[in-house]
Amino acid sequence: MTNKEYADILLPGVKHTWEEYEEMYPERDLPEGAIVTRYAPSPTGLPHMGNLFQAFVSKVFSDQTNGVFFLRIEDTDTERSIENGIEKILEALKPFNIEFTEGAISQTEYKGNYGPYIQSKREDIYKAYAKKLIEEDLAYPSFASKEELDEIRREQELSKQRLGYYGRWAKDRFISHEEAIERINNGEEYTIRLKSPGDFFKKVILNDAIKGKIELPENDIDEILIKSDGLPTYHFAHVIDDHLMHTTHVIRGDEWVSSTNKHLQMFEVLGFKAPKYCHIAPLNKNDNGTIRKLSKRKDPEATLMYYIEEGIPVGAVMLYLATITNSNFEAWLDANPNGKIEDFKFDFKKANSSNGSLFDLPKLLNISKNYLSRLSKEEIYNKLLEYTKEYDKDFYGIISKYPEYTKDILNIEREQKKPRKDYAKYSDIKQGIWYMYDELYEAKDYEWQKITDKEEIKNILNTYINEYYDENDDKDTWFSKIQDLSNNLGYAGNMKDYKENPDNYKGNVADISTVIRVALTTKSQTPDLYELLRLIGKDKIKERFNQFD
RNA sequence: GGCCUGUUGGUGAAGUGGUUAACACAUUGCCCUCUCAAGGCAACAUUCACGAGUUCGAAUCUCGUACAGGUCACCA
């Protein structure tokens, strides 16, 4: 019996030969230096921050070289795959502007010439290549059951040997074709394993684009290529797919580095050119002093929905991911405040090569503050509208009723060189400006400061509104009138005077304006009082001044 | 246990044989100021986990130790 006939028996019904597949997926026609990357999740749940980070890095590198960034679904674990996994992944990623140039669109559709992009639909392809290896006597059927494998492991542990199906432990390597066929005919289940040519005591070099040179022992384990359900293992699927899809850079989590010797070996054995590997460190978190990987189950901030629900701007999240990717991004942004992520040249060498970066929420919030302060009033108004529509319907109703008024409020000290930075999230905004709306304003819980005497307060307010306040004043005359008022009532209009001789005065101009501020808003801390008064208007100011008693 | 990787201030980090060891966040203090938010200025690692070695010279190179992470599935 020839090896070819043997391969046909082991993997029957394969429609195409590997040579045919090679022709079906030719080299890509791309400009010099174009990077082809992919995001290759298993549809076992929703993507989390770590996944987003990986996708972000992959996209950034392909974008800046006019390359390709595609989505491949790795669903060879039928047990763990969830319903509508692809749609859920796409939907979760959508708000973060992760768009793919090609790949799966839904369970049944895809775009691009290298599909299908769902591994369970590529079964024939993997088998075609497995057959090639069987024909070349580089792969063989293995009948070892779960129990037998457990037994081997036990023995290895007991005798303190390296774990795995290799060398003399790989007994099925030596099964004759005849015996194999007989056992198959008897209905025994089997896998296809690689006949590993590796020597554990020799080294293979992985030149990682991020981590640099890493020496690994050659792989000598007879890794499973095709599982007994006919689907490939991750390792085999990765090698076949990234070869056929012409991935130039495999960007993945660094939990894979210790398996990379297997992958390099498979590329070699199949005669393929291996891609460049870029292993990125995981996102960590400081949990009461211990550093651990960000966990989807334990950490709310690991889930993508957290950011949407909290109202943390997606744009800020992306800026934060950019600074984690290349720490010099931050300095660049500082020098180019209106710079876009697309304009920054990312570099693998500048990526964090250690054991992981701390995912620091306070830092992200700081970036977010700056981000929000740079938006125009229209931009922030529209974003706020979007957010409240989903998460604060009452407030949504109010701000959509008064669009121009709301924009003016949001614009206080905004469109200037050093804008206010008081909000890190869309959800912070309401508590900063609620008192500007009659629908939300309540004349109670006044935060009076130094001046608390009711009669004194009334006197200040009445004098101010009747004798001093004029809506047509510009800011300077507005303030000088407050100073006049202060002087006339026995308060220092000038802070310096007050500081020099505090005993000469009942108080100072700050106390006076605080009274006005609190009477108007109930709060002692607000944005610029001049703007607030102007926006509220004289009639309503009077109304509010009369409400507190 | 084997294999791989890492360890720079409270935190994230620059740094690749000669630097006063960048920068950012946080913190503290001062200034500015009608409150706040900002902004400005300053302080914060005599030292880069520890121990040896190479070198005129080491955070940077070598070895060892400690600690941390990853990985050793018919999961990805």
What does this structure look like?
The protein has 549 residues and is α/β, with parallel strands linked by helices. Helix content is 44%, strand content 11%. The chain has 23 helices and 16 strands. The protein has helices at residues 3-10, 18-24, 49-63, 85-93, 123-135, 146-158, 177-185, 234-244, 260-270, 304-310, 314-325, 328-335, 361-374, 377-391, 393-401, 403-410, 426-433, 454-468, 475-488, 495-500, 509-521, 529-536, 538-545; strands at residues 36-39, 68-71, 102-104, 110-111, 139-142, 191-194, 203-208, 212-217, 224-226, 249-253, 276-280, 283-287, 290-293, 357-358, 491-492, 507-508. A hairpin with a 5-residue loop joins strand 3 (102-104) and strand 4. Helix 14 packs across helix 16. It is elongated. The termini are far apart. The mean pLDDT is 91. It binds one RNA strand of 76 nucleotides through helix 6, strand 8, helix 8, strand 13 and helix 12.
